[in-house]
Amino acid sequence: MNWTQNFESILLDRNSGKCPFCGSKETDFSITTISDGMGYCDIWCNDCKHACHISRMNTDGFQNENKKIPEGLKY
Ligand SMILES: [Zn+2]
After folding, report:
1. Interatomic CA distance for residues 41 and 54, integer angstroms
2. How far is ligand 1, taken at its centre, from the CA of residue 35, in Å?
3. Is residue 17 situated within a structural domain?
């Protein structure tokens, strides 16, 4: 199981979708731009705490929302 489809959904319509581990819709994501439209993305599930870190992505079109990433996530 992985978060590939969730990441694609975020890129398409900013929707993190269902958790691939437990099926919960209580997922969320945070995108952080480091420089020149490059940055990283974290996706997580608020129910089972599984999470995924995409270490490098093109962040053009995304705002830094400075969302708080929950503690205790299982990457
Ligand atoms: Zn889950």
Report:
1. 5
2. 31
3. yes
**CATH number, residue 42:** 2.20.25
Count the neighbouring beta carbons within 10 Å of the beta carbon of residue 15.
13
Q: Which residues of the chain have pLDDT under 70?
A: none
pLDDT of residue 27: 98
What gap in Å lies between CA 73 and CA 52, rounded to an integer?
9
Is 64 a domain residue? no
Task: Tell me, in angstroms, the distance from the centre of ligand 1 to residue 26's CA.
Answer: 8
Distance 9 CA to ligand 1 centre (A): 16
